[in-house]
């Protein structure tokens, strides 16, 4: 099951990346015909939608983890694991030209939501 989620998430990420590269070509073409701003905004909306969907998929996994941890009496907060995720995310963000501060803020927000979901998952 873990492998299934991993490949589904990886596939979704790959799809988002492919769509992004196709949209980048669209942006260049639209600069020439005067629709650059409108087209760019539509592409941002599309990427934002994909990001929300991807985070939603992530939180589905978190719900399953929350139920597992509750069954095994494991605390929701695993600080070492979060630090590992944060370090990996900062490294990936750097490759994408994103600042470590932004990545920390983003991952902290996602982590807080994940902890809330894990805690709520234990109520089932």
UniProtKB/TrEMBL annotation:
Keyword Isomerase carried by entry: yes
Domain Chorismate mutase: 31-122
Signal peptide segment: 1-24
Protein name in UniProt: chorismate mutase
Keyword Iron: no
E.C. numbers: 5.4.99.5
SUPFAM superfamilies linked to this entry: Chorismate mutase II
High-level lineage: Bacteria, Pseudomonadati, Bacteroidota, Chitinophagia, Chitinophagales
């Amino acid at each position: 099951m873990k492998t299934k989620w991993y490949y589904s998430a990886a596939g979704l990420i790959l799809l988002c990346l492919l769509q992004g590269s196709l949209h980048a070509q669209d942006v260049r073409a639209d600069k020439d015909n005067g629709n650059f701003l409108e087209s760019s905004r539509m592409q941002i909306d599309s990427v934002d939608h994909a990001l929300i969907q991807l985070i939603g998929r992530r939180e589905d996994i978190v719900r399953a983890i929350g139920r597992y941890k509750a069954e095994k009496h494991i605390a929701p907060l695993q600080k070492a694991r979060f630090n590992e995720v944060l370090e990996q995310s900062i490294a990936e963000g750097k490759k994408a030209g994103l600042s470590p501060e932004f990545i920390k803020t983003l991952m902290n927000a996602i982590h807080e939501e994940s902890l809330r979901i894990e805690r709520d998952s234990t109520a089932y």
